[in-house]
Amino acid sequence: MFATYRPILSLLRGTAFLLAASGLHGLLLPLRGQAEGFSTAVLGLLGTAWAGGFVAGCFLAPRLVRRAGHVRAFGAFAASGAIIALLTGLMIHPVAWIILRAATGFTMAGAFMVIESWLNEKATNENRGTVFGLYMMVTYASIMAGQMIVAAGDVRSDSLFMVAGIFFCLALLPTAMSTADTPKPLQDVSLDIKSLYANSPVASVGCLLIGVANGAWGTLGAVYGARIGITTAEIALMMSLVVVAGAALQLPIGRVSDRTDRRYVLAAASMGAALFGLLVFLVTPRAGVTVIAMTACYGALAYTLYSLAVAHANDHASPEDFVKVSGGLLLLYGFGTMIGPLLGSSLMSLMRPESLFLATALAHVALAAYTLLRISRRAPVPVEAREAFTTMPSERGATPEAARLDPRIKPEQDG
User: Fold this and answer.
1) Cβ atoms within 10 A of the Cβ of 4, count?
2) Which of 358, 354, 357, 359 minimizes the C-alpha distance to 284?
3) Cα 197 vs. chain centroid, distance in angstroms?
4) What are the DSSP calls for 280-342, one per residue?
5) Tens of pLDDT along 259-306?
6) Would you say 223 and 348 are in contact if contact means Cβ atoms under 8 Å apart?
7) Residue 340: closest CA among 369, 263, 332
8) What's the CA gap between 49 and 106, in Å, rounded?
9) How far apart are CA 106 and CA 55, in angstroms?
10) Which of residues 173 and 183 earns the better pLDDT score?
């Protein structure tokens, strides 16, 4: 049995190093930028640039991989990540960081597409669920580990940039030394917004709005923590627990949505996330423990929404369209993450740091309102005709290739 999973475990080790590097670098930049006196607008643009680069990478990386091959392409992407991490430590300048952050998003998209396609190639009908579960565990654990490394260092020194570069280089080793056969060439990514909306208006609009909220928080949450005066360790824990709380609540909320109209669950979770965001905005907590507890409650609801939206879309799609639908929704989410940091940084500049949660609340209220409107326009899918809810890996480290890892997808549907 172990021999069956050995090639997969090698790929997952590379994934762990890559995500740890991404989590570390992604949290370090806003904290160092805040310490250097970068404006809120610049810090928001870092998130927009990353998201833009990531979406561009999803479209362009398959061509690069087909030309160079999986192993060489992944080596180039990981090495580029290391170079970029070191350059951001050498060039402390807003314009340079925005450009480099876009390049990071592009290289991360390419690296993840290689890993996810490789995992999909090695997965079988019998172990696809196990592979998908392992991938999710590695994703969340590695991102959290990378973010917590920030708490052990000094954001004003260059050492953490070096550590991020080392982790990017370590991600090279498992795939470079692996004897596993390389998978089939990557397929080009396409986005058919008209078809996605016709399949599920709620999921299409929802993924865009969820991207707005999560993009604002993911980019500026650390800036919020620094400006209200909590410690770096508390910021790292806060950022990690928001995502982990959402991951932990995905399955129980998903099971509830299996038994009723998913749109009611989506609207309720959206309103819950909006209420917790507004609570932080109005109460303005300053004690680290209180801030962490309140933001974790926010994340427990906010980071379940994407999986609910995708599950609702798949209820309306035929099994052979799951990959197309899920991949398209992820791209819509990516476009939302370009908008979120701009909205969040604008409100934080105009008002106080807690205005970040006003930005997320606007997106969540809009999602809840639109979902309730659509409930009155379209009948729910009968319970017996629905696909069972499946938890999703963190959208921060997933490409359209991740949709092919869904346990419901069979290889013959994947072509």
Assistant:
1) 12
2) 354
3) 22
4) HHHH---SHHHHHHHHHHHHHHHTTHHHHHHHHHHHHS-GGGHHHHHHHHHHHHHHHHHHHHH
5) 888 899 999 999 999 999 999 999 999 998 999 999 999 999 999 998
6) yes
7) 332
8) 10
9) 7
10) 173
> What single-letter amino acid sits at 266?
L
CB 43 within 8 A of CB 33: yes
Q: Which two tokens stand for residue 198?
A: 């016709």
Q: Quickly list DSSP for 51-73.
A: HHHHHHHHHHHHHHHHHH-HHHH
CB 174 within 8 A of CB 13: yes
Distance CA 324, CA 404 (A): 9
Q: Which two tokens stand for residue 359?
A: 């930005």
Q: Which amino acid is at 165?
A: G
Query: In 36-124, where does DSSP find H-type helix?
Result: 40-68, 70-90, 94-122
pLDDT of 384 strictly over 90: no
| CA distances from residue 44 to 85, 335, 343, 404 in whole angstroms, order as listed | 19, 15, 8, 32
pTM: 0.88
Q: What b/e string do you get for 282-313 counting C-beta neighbours within 10 Å, with b at 16 or more? A: eeebeebeebbebbbbbbbbbbbbbbbbbbbb
Please, are residues 81 and 107 in contact by the beta-carbon 8 Å criterion?
yes
What pLDDT digit, counting tens, does each position of 235-261 carry? 999 999 998 898 888 888 888 888 888
